[in-house]
Structures are given as C-alpha cells and as structure tokens.
Design goal:
Blueprint: H1 17-21, H2 27-37, H3 39-66, H4 81-104, H5 117-120, H6 122-136, H7 146-170, H8 175-185, H9 192-211, H10 214-220, E1 227-228, E2 231-232, H11 234-241, H12 248-270, H13 281-303
Antiparallel strand pairs: 1-2
C-alpha cells in the first residue's frame, strides 16, 4: 500500500514552533512543559510528544491492517461479489487519501501543528477502526501482542467516553439513536442487525445535517456547485464543517472516510436477497465502534470551529 506511517517524527520541529505558539489548542501542553523545562525546550517537547502519539497510532493502524486478509473480505457474511469489490475499492481509496494527507505535511505550507493536536491524531484512528471491522468479515492472520492490545483497548474506550460529551454538545437528542444501537447489540431480537445498521446510518446523517445546517450553509456560500435541488450537497456540508482547517487533503480524507462508511452501511442494509445481512455479535460490535469513531471525528472537527 506504500504506507506513510512514521515519517512525521522526522519533520523539522523548528518549523512548527510558530504554529503552536499562536494556537489556543496547544497552550495547555506548552504551559506544562514550560514549567518543567523552560520556554525554548517546551516547544520541542510538546511537538515531539505529539508526533510520537501520531506515530504510535499510525503503527497500530499498520498492525491492524496486517491482520486483514484482503482475499477473504466479505466471505464471513452474506455479501455478493459486487459488494465485496466495492468494499475493497472504497477502503483502498481511503488508504490512498490517508497516505496523501500525511505526505502533505512535509510541505512547508502545511504543518501538523497548525491543526489542534486532537484533530491531527484522528485519521490513523479511522484506519484502525475500519480495519477492525473488515477483519471481522474476513479473518485474522495472527493475534496482537498484549502490549499492543492494551493500547487498542484503551483507544476504543476513549472513543466511547468522549463521544457522549460530543453528542451532548451538538444535540442530546441524538444519544438515543447511538444507545439504541448499542442496546440492540445485547438483545436477542432476530431483527437486531437491521435495527443497528439503520440506527447507525441515521446517526451519521443527522450529525452531518446538524453540524452543517442548510441555513448556515446558505449564509456561508452561494456557490451553485454546493447545491442540488436547492439543498446543500454532502460536499457542501463537509466544506462547511472543515472551513476552519483550510487544508484540502484533510477535507478529502474526511469526505472519503464518510463516503466509504455510508456506502458500506448501505450495502449491509440492502443485503443480497433479504432485508439486511445478518451479522454476528463480533461484526456488529465492530461496526458500532467504527461508526462511533467516524461520528467523533466529524464532531471534533466541527467543535474546532465553535
């Protein structure tokens, strides 16, 4: 896949000092290090810690991908050959955009430090959770080490814990959709797969529409390419959500991330010859976590503009 996971550590830290020095999102970490090591060293330690976090997540993403048997994707569920091909193609394109995003940070005009630290750490998490789901519908080649699994478990717990607060910040009324899917996972309802899949799709759709409302988009732009039948397109909503980032590769990755996941959910919902594909408990759990991660991604970016 030509992956680009660890080169951020090699970025010349000096070029990012100005970016973090003027960003409110970096001040807490800077202040902590200034108290311990002085101002000059504080910048280096803050950036080094941030790049190390990205590298750790990127290496975990690489490891999870290593467990994915590409030839077996879809074989553990009732997916047609066409659905399997679309799933593989969508994920492959997402990986390409992921690589393109991190390569873009080598350019002088694009610095990881110009992003809030909690934003630039999100893309590898998307690859991790997507890989985890695809592994459940294919098969693992080997088991992770205890140390790696502990990092992975903590990551998934962080996603769940932070998502509740993020949903409350947007609309507390969305929480029942999320919790309904999680409750259905624990039920014996024979229709639980459909219930979960429909709830997850509706959650993403509502989050997109509420973080980028029609009225706000109309006030923000009159660009005709952003409207279809007088309604904002998904592209318009993503441009609006990412308007404070000013970085096309990042917006492109988020767009591909959302598109690939919605397409996957749509395929699972339609199934082959029935109302929806009957997924196992493990597969449904991975699908919920994957959706939680994506919704958190959208809400974190949205919150950075507010």
């Amino acid at each position: 896949m030509g992956f680009y996971f660890t080169s951020l550590i090699a970025v010349v830290i000096a070029k990012d000092k100005e970016a973090i020095g003027t960003s409110k999102y970096w001040q807490t970490e800077l202040d902590i290090h200034k108290g311990l090591a002085g101002e000059a060293e504080a910048y280096r330690l803050t950036l080094l810690g941030h790049y190390s976090n990205i590298a750790e997540l990127s290496l975990l993403a690489q490891e999870r991908l290593g467990y994915l048997n590409w030839d077996a994707i879809g074989l553990k569920v009732d997916m047609s050959h066409e659905m399997i091909s679309k799933t593989i193609s969508s994920f492959s394109m997402l990986l390409q955009d992921y690589e393109y995003l991190f390569k873009s940070f080598e350019k002088a005009e694009y610095k990881t430090a110009s992003f809030a630290p909690f934003i630039s750490e999100l893309p590898p998490i998307e690859i991790i959770t997507e890989s985890d789901f695809l592994v459940t519908i294919a098969g693992e080649k080997e088991q992770p080490s205890e140390e790696t699994e502990n990092i992975h478990t903590q990551l998934l717990e962080d996603i769940e814990i932070s998502l509740k607060d993020l949903l409350v910040s947007l609309n507390e009324g969305l929480i029942p959709l999320w919790q309904g899917a999680k409750a259905a996972l624990k039920s014996n309802n024979p229709d639980r797969s459909r219930h979960i899949i429909v709830s997850l799709r509706e959650l993403i759709t509502r989050v997109l529409r509420q973080t980028a409302p029609d009225s706000d988009i109309r006030s923000w732009t009159v660009n005709p390419s952003f409207f279809n039948n007088d309604r904002p397109t998904r592209q318009a909503r993503l441009h609006f959500i990412c308007r404070g980032l000013n970085h096309d590769p990042f917006r492109q990755f988020l767009n591909k991330d959302i598109s690939a996941h919605l397409e996957l959910i749509q395929m699972l919902q339609s199934g082959t010859h029935k109302v929806s594909i009957d997924l196992t408990n493990e597969q449904l759990k991975a699908l919920i976590i994957r959706t939680e991660s994506l919704v958190r991604f959208i809400l974190v970016v949205w919150n950075s503009n507010n």
